[in-house]
Amino acid sequence: SSVALGSICQSAISNRLPTGGFTNPKACSQTRHGDSEWWQAQLTSNSAARVTFVQVHQLKGCCKNASKPLLTVTLDGNDCPLRILKLQQRSRQVFFCNRTGQTVRVTSELPNTQLTVCQVQVFAENLADIDADHPLLQLSNCSQLPPSSSATCQKATDGRTRTGCIAVPENGWWEAQTQKASLIKYVRIYSAMTCCQDSAYKFSVSVDGSNCISYSGAYFSARDFLCKRKGRNIRIVNRMQTGQLLLCEVQAFGSRRTPVDYG
Fold it and tell me: Does residue 120 belong to any structural domain of this protein?
């Protein structure tokens, strides 16, 4: 985010919570004056997390006359509503997310205002713990259209969720296979999200030609999609008229089964 008066955005993630609340603005992160000023950070875990809620601390006495919420919080572009609306006048506010993601943004709802964020706390569960009952299925034999070298398409299955992304152009697709036919319960997609993306993603996911996901919505850095299809070949198709679909990592979860189990 933009900062002013020598402030740095890391001040809001210093884990310092003074007794009695924040009274010194120098201990906080402050933006310049402007419309819809924002502060943003990513979770440090290399994998996405299921964020339950976000707690934002501001200067003591900041909001005592507020008639409506002065802040909004989003996770990967999806709104996290204020947990208890009547507490909007408190300097510590809690926003309910209950979704998967990596990028947290706090935005001021006031025009021509300096946003002051003293501390942001994110409460989440690591997806690795949540997935204990859903084995990760190994993906291989990738391909894509337009065609590219195998080294390029494999960037979406190399285990790195933040680097080495591939770009699928309009009406193009990417696909990979599980080691054997499986019941694929859901697909997790890691994408690349920047600060200034304002258009929407639109894509579909199919298993052995059977569509299980049709998504049209905001950009995200990580998201889970329910699938529940039996098969082996997973294909992701970019349905946007203009714009690239960025895939940093694709993961499939489910129960390993042989074709005979399907009847």
Answer: yes
